[in-house]
C-alpha cells in the first residue's frame, strides 16, 4: 500500500510548507511518498507558479499569474511498479492539476514529462475567455539524473509552451529512493553549476513612509527584440530600474541587459516583452491596441526573488502608459516612472518602444513624450528670448549713440 501525506512544515520540517512570501503567495511543497513497507520511495520539494496568456471574446489577450497552491491535494501520486514509473499528481485551486512522470533507465532515471492542466470555464480567473474548457499542456523534459543522486536546483527553471509558462525553483527531487533513505549526494542543475551572477541590488534601506532610497547610478540601457518567425515584431530600448517595497523595506534594482534573457510574443491586438535574469523570474510588458489606431502599455507582471529569500509578485492589467500611434514608436529620453502598484514602480531611462508594425527590424518615426517635447520647446524659446533681448540691447545702444551724435552736432 502506498502512503502519501501533505501537511504543514514546522520548524523541524514536516511535509508541506504553506508560507506566504512577499506581496503574493508562493508556497514550498514537500512530498514524502512511501511504499507498502512505509519506506520512502519518492521525495520531492519545490516551489512553483504559472503564467497563462489567453484570448478574450473581444480578440485581445490577457495574462494571469497562478501562484496560490494553498489548496493542494494529492490524487494519484504513486511509487510506480514494474510496468509504470513513479509519478507526482497534485490538484489545486479551481481546476488546476500538475503531473510529473518519471522513468527508470539504469544507471539513471529521467524526469520524463510534465503536464499542466487548467480550466478556462472559471470566469473568476479567466474572465471573458474566448475558448472554454479544460486545457492540458504536455511537455517532454527528459532530464537524466543518476539513480543514487538527489536532483537539486535553486535557480529558476522555466518551461514555456502554448502561452503557458511554468516556473520552478528551490527544487529537490529523488524519484527512485534506494532502501528508503533519501540520498545526500546532490546532482546539480546546469543553472546552479554556472550561476555566478550577483543580484544587482543597488540600495536597500528601511525608509520613512515618505522617503525612497536613492540609487548610486543609472541603469545600463539595453536593446531588446521579439521575433515572429524570422521577422522582428517588437523593439524596445531602455534602461530599467525596479523599485520594490516589502515590509517597509525598499529596494532599488538596476537591470543589467548583458545578463537578462528576452522572450515574448506578438499578436494582432497585443504584444508581450518578457525579461528574466538570475533574480527575476519574469518581468512582462504587455502592449495593446486601442481604437484600432494607437498602442499603449496596458499591463505589467513581475515575479522576482528578493535578497531575504522571499518571492515578490505583482500584476496590473489596467495601466495606460507609452501611448503612440500605430506604425510609429514611442520615445522618452527623460526619466519616467511606471507605477504598477503602491509597492512596485519601474523607472525608465532613454526609452524607445515599438510593439507593432516593425518594418525591416527598425524603429519607425517616434512620438516623443511630453517631457521631451517640453524640453525641445524650451530650447528654441530660450534662444528666441535671448535673441530678442540682444536685439533690444542693440536697438537701445543705437538710439543712445544717435542721440549723443545729435547732441554733439548742436554744440558745435
Automatic annotation (TrEMBL):
Q: Where is this region: Disordered?
A: 203-223
An example of a Gene Ontology BP annotation on this entry?
proton transmembrane transport
Q: Show the GO MF annotations.
A: enzyme binding; ion channel inhibitor activity; protein domain specific binding; protein-macromolecule adaptor activity
Q: Which cysteines are joined by disulfide bonds?
A: 153-189, 332-369
Query: How does the record classify its membrane topology?
Result: Single-pass type I membrane protein
Q: Which UniProt keywords apply?
A: Autophagy, Cell membrane, Cytoplasmic vesicle, Disulfide bond, Endosome, Glycoprotein, Lysosome, Membrane, Signal, Transmembrane, Transmembrane helix
Q: What domain of life is recorded for the organism?
A: Eukaryota
Q: Biased-composition ranges for Low complexity?
A: 204-215
The keyword Protein biosynthesis appears for this protein: no
Residue ranges constituting the Lysosome-associated membrane glycoprotein 2-like transmembrane domain according to the UniProt record:
379-410
Report the residue ranges that make up the Lysosome-associated membrane glycoprotein 2-like luminal domain in this protein. 219-358
Task: Please indicate if the UniProt record lists Transferase as a keyword.
Answer: no
Q: Where does the signal sequence lie?
A: 1-28
Q: How does it assemble?
A: Monomer. Forms large homooligomers. Interacts (via its cytoplasmic region) with HSPA8; HSPA8 mediates recruitment of proteins with a KFERQ motif to the surface of the lysosome for chaperone-mediated autophagy. Interacts with HSP90 in the lysosome lumen; this enhances LAMP2 stability. Interacts with MLLT11. Interacts with ABCB9. Interacts with FURIN. Interacts with CT55; this interaction may be important for LAMP2 protein stability. Interacts with TMEM175; inhibiting the proton channel activity of TMEM175.
Task: Identify this protein by name.
Answer: Lysosome-associated membrane glycoprotein 2
